[in-house]
Design brief:
The chain is of the alpha+beta class. It contains eleven helices and ten strands. The strands form three sheets. Strands 5, 6, 7, 8, 9 and 10 form a six-stranded mixed β-sheet that branches. Strands 1-2 form a two-stranded antiparallel sheet. β3 and β4 (133-135) form a beta hairpin.
C-alpha cells in the first residue's frame, strides 16, 4: 500500500462506501475501518447499517441512504492519509542482556506503598456490568479487573514499582487520587493500565428472566453474557502522544508476570520515543509551514501574473476601441467632405467628428506611456472616466 495521500470528492467516497464493505475499503486506503468511519462522519457521509451486506448476499436490495447536501464547501473534498504499517522491533542480543529479570510473588502481602494505595482505592464488592471491580467514588486507578485478576495485577505492580524506584523513575499520583497514575521517566510522563479482557457468550434466558420480561414490558433480556476471562493486559503509553504506546498480554506460552522485566526496559524506550515523536512533529510542522509559505508565494505570483495579464488585456481592448472610434470619425469626416449636405447639418457632423477624434485619443492608452506603465506595475486598474 502506497503511503501517498489519496484525494477524492465527497460523492466518490460515498459511492465507494456503499459499494465495498468498510473493512475491505479501509484496507484498500491503508487506514483502519474505525478511522474511515470517523472520516465519513466528519464529511457527513452516511454509511450502510448493520445487516446491509448480509441482505445483499441473499439477493435482497436494501435501500441506500442518499448523500445529504452540505453547506460547507470544505467538506466536498476528502483527503485520506494512509497510515504507515507498524514494523516489528527485534531486540539485539546486547539489548536482550539489558532486560532485567523481575520475579513476581505468587502469594504474601502487597508491600509497595503505591500498590497498597491502589488496592485501598478499589472496592471489594462493587462490580460493573462486565464483572469488573469498581474504583471507589472519585478515584481513578490503573487497574480494571475481576477479584482474581486484581490479585495478579497488584502483585505485578508490587514487583514493578520497586524496580522502577531503583531505576530512578517517579510515580505521579497525588491525593485525592482523582487523576490517572503516571510514571515520570527521563522527564516524560507515561501512563499505564492493567486490564482484564472479557468473554462474550450468547445469553440463555432463565425462567426468572422470562417472568420479568412478561411483567415489565419495558425491560429486555440481554443479548450477551459478558464475563471476565482471567487474561491480563499491561498497556503503556505517552500522556502527550497516545500513539506512542506498547502493550503486553497473557499468552499461550507465557503469562504477564514473566513480562515485568520487558515492561521496565520499555519505560525508557518509550520515553525516548516520546522525545523523538516531539522532534518529528516539530519537523513536520516546520515542513508544513514551509509548504504553506511556498503555496502562498506561488498564489501571490499567480495573482500578480493574472493581474498583469488582465491589465494588458484591458489596455489592448482600450487601444482597439480607440482605433475603432478614430477610424469611424475619420470615415465620417471623409463622407461629410465629399457629400452635399446642408450647412447646418455639416456643421453638426464636423463637431461630431472633432469630438470623436478627441475621444479616440482619450481612449488610446498609447497617448500616455507613463500611465500605461503604471497600470502594468501597480494595481488596481483605473480608468479616468
Amino acid at each position: 500500500m502506497s503511503s501517498k495521500k489519496l484525494s477524492m470528492t465527497r460523492t466518490e467516497l460515498f459511492e465507494r462506501a456503499w459499494a465495498t464493505p468498510m473493512r475491505t475499503l479501509a484496507k484498500q486506503f491503508g487506514i483502519s475501518d474505525v478511522g474511515l468511519a470517523k472520516l465519513c462522519r466528519r464529511h457527513q457521509i452516511p454509511l450502510p447499517g448493520r445487516g446491509y451486506w448480509a441482505r445483499l448476499q441473499f439477493g435482497q436490495k436494501p435501500e441506500c441512504t442518499p448523500l445529504p447536501e452540505t453547506t460547507e464547501p470544505r467538506l466536498e473534498s476528502v483527503t485520506i492519509v494512509p497510515s504507515e504499517p507498524k514494523q516489528r522491533v527485534t531486540l539485539t542480543p546486547e539489548q536482550k542482556e539489558q532486560i532485567p529479570t523481575i520475579d513476581v510473588a505468587v502469594d504474601g502481602l502487597i508491600n509497595h506503598v503505591f500498590a497498597r494505595r491502589i488496592e485501598r482505592n478499589i472496592t471489594k464488592a462493587n462490580f460493573d456490568e462486565r464483572g469488573m471491580l469498581l474504583a471507589r467514588s472519585g478515584s481513578i486507578v490503573p487497574i480494571k479487573a475481576s477479584p482474581t485478576g486484581l490479585a495478579r495485577a497488584l502483585r505485578i505492580l508490587d514487583a514493578l514499582f520497586p524496580a522502577a524506584d531503583r531505576a530512578g523513575y517517579k510515580v505521579d499520583w497525588p491525593a485525592p487520587y482523582n487523576t490517572g497514575m503516571k510514571m515520570i521517566v527521563l522527564g516524560e510522563k507515561l501512563t499505564f493500565f492493567v486490564s482484564e479482557s472479557t468473554n462474550r457468550r450468547e445469553h440463555k434466558p432463565t425462567s426468572e428472566g422470562r417472568i420479568r420480561q412478561k411483567k415489565d414490558t419495558w425491560w429486555r433480556l440481554p443479548k450477551w453474557d459478558i464475563t471476565p476471562s482471567g487474561q491480563l493486559r499491561f498497556s503503556l503509553s505517552s500522556c502527550e502522544y497516545p500513539n506512542v504506546s506498547k502493550s503486553w498480554s497473557d499468552g499461550k506460552r507465557r503469562k504477564l508476570e514473566s513480562c515485568v522485566g520487558d515492561i521496565l526496559y520499555a519505560y525508557e524506550e518509550t520515553a525516548n520515543a516520546v522525545k523523538q515523536e516531539r522532534v518529528d512533529r516539530a519537523e513536520a510542522e516546520r515542513r508544513r509551514i514551509e509548504e504553506q509559505k511556498r503555496q502562498a508565494e506561488a498564489a501571490t505570483r499567480k495573482a500578480e501574473y493574472d493581474r498583469k495579464a488582465e491589465a494588458l488585456k484591458k489596455l489592448a481592448h482600450a487601444w482597439k476601441e480607440s482605433k475603432l472610434v478614430k477610424d469611424f470619425a475619420l470615415a465620417l469626416q471623409g463622407t461629410v467632405a465629399g457629400a452635399e449636405v446642408p450647412a447646418e447639418l455639416k456643421e453638426e457632423l464636423e463637431k461630431m467628428v472633432e469630438w470623436g477624434l478627441r475621444h479616440a485619443n482619450y481612449l488610446d492608452p498609447l497617448t500616455d506611456l507613463k500611465w500605461v506603465a503604471q497600470q502594468f506595475k501597480n494595481p488596481p486598474w483605473l480608468f479616468g472616466y
